[in-house]
Amino acid sequence: MKSRASFLPTPFFQANGRALIVPMDHGTAIAVPGLEDMGGAMERLGLYADGFVVNYGVARAFRGALSRKGVCLRADVYKPSLPGHEDHGAYRTYGAAEALAVGARAVMSMLYVHHPAEAQMFRENAALISECHAVGVPVIVEALPYGLGQSAHYTPEHIGFAVRAAAELGADVVKTAWPGDEAAFRNIVEASFVPVIVLGGAASDAAGILQMVEQSIRAGGAGIAIGRNVWQQPDPVLMLRRLHAVVHGGATAAEALELR
Fold first, then answer.
1. Number of domains, the chain
2. pLDDT tens, per residue, the chain with 260 residues
C-alpha cells in the first residue's frame, strides 16, 4: 500500500496514519437520541476518540471538554428536506474565522455529487477549502452520492467518483460511505491521493460495524468517523474502545468484540 499524505497535516491522525473521529454534529440535521448530555458524552468518549466533529454552538459551549481533543468544526448544515419541501442538500454556514475562534483544528463540509444542488455545494466547498488553506486549517470533505442516506446510490462507482471529486477539489481528507465490499473500497482508496475515512451511518449492530471497520482498514482506509454507531450503542465507551482496538490496535472484529 503506497503512503498518502493530506495537503495539510490533519491532527486527528496518529503515528500509524489513522484517525478515530466521533461526529456529534447531528443536532442541526436529524432528531436523534443520545446527545442529550454533550459534555458528559465527550468526557467519557475522550478516553478513546482522537477528535470530535461538532457544530459551532457546541464548540463554544463545551470548549473545556473539547480542549483535550481535536475539534473539527462542521462548516455546513446538511439537514434533509421534509416531504413537500425543496431539497437544498447541504449549505455552508461557517468558515475559517469561526474555526479559528473556537480552536478547531479542521473543518468538515458535505459534498453531494449528482444532487440537484451540486453546483452550489461544489462552489461552497471550493470557497471553504481556499479560505481555510489560506490560514492553515485542513478540510475534511464528506463526499456522498446524491444525498444523505441515499444508500441505493452508494455503489462503488458512485462512491469512487465522489471521493475522487472531493480530492481533486482540494480536500485534505475525504470521508465517505462504505460500498459494501472490501475489494471495491480498496480500489476507491487506491484511486485517491488523499486519505479516505469511512462513516458509520444509521445505527447498526456492533458486530456488523466492527466487521466493516476491519475490512476498511485492511483495504487501506485511513480510519473512521463514526457517531451514531458509537453514542447510540448500549455502552458507547465500550463500543469506542472496540473500534479503537481495530483502528489503532490492529485487532480483528472478532477480537474487539470480545473486549468487555
1. 1
2. 454 655 677 789 999 999 999 999 998 888 888 899 999 999 999 999 999 999 999 999 999 889 888 899 999 999 887 888 888 999 999 999 999 999 999 999 999 999 999 999 999 999 999 999 999 999 999 999 998 888 899 999 999 999 999 999 999 999 999 999 999 999 999 999 999 999 998 778 999 999 999 999 999 999 999 999 999 999 999 999 999 999 999 999 999 999 98
6 in any annotated domain? no
Task: Taking each helix axis as running N to C, give the angle between helix 156-169 and helix 182-190, from 0 to 180 degrees, rounded to the nearest 10.
Answer: 20
What 8-state DSSP symbol labels residue 54? E
Burial pattern 46-83, b for ≥16 Cβ within 10 A else e, equals bebbbbbbbbbebbeebeebbeebbbbbbbbbbeeeee
DSSP symbol at 18? -
C-beta separation of 188 from 196 below 8 A: yes
Identify the CATH number of the domain in which residue 211 sits. 3.20.20.70
β-strands 196-199, 173-176 pairing: parallel
CA distance 192 to 176: 12
Asked if 61 contacts 89 with a C-beta cutoff of 8 angstroms, the reply is no
- Whether the full predicted model's pTM is greater than 0.70, yes or no, is yes
User: Can you tell me which residue has the cell 490533519?
Assistant: 10
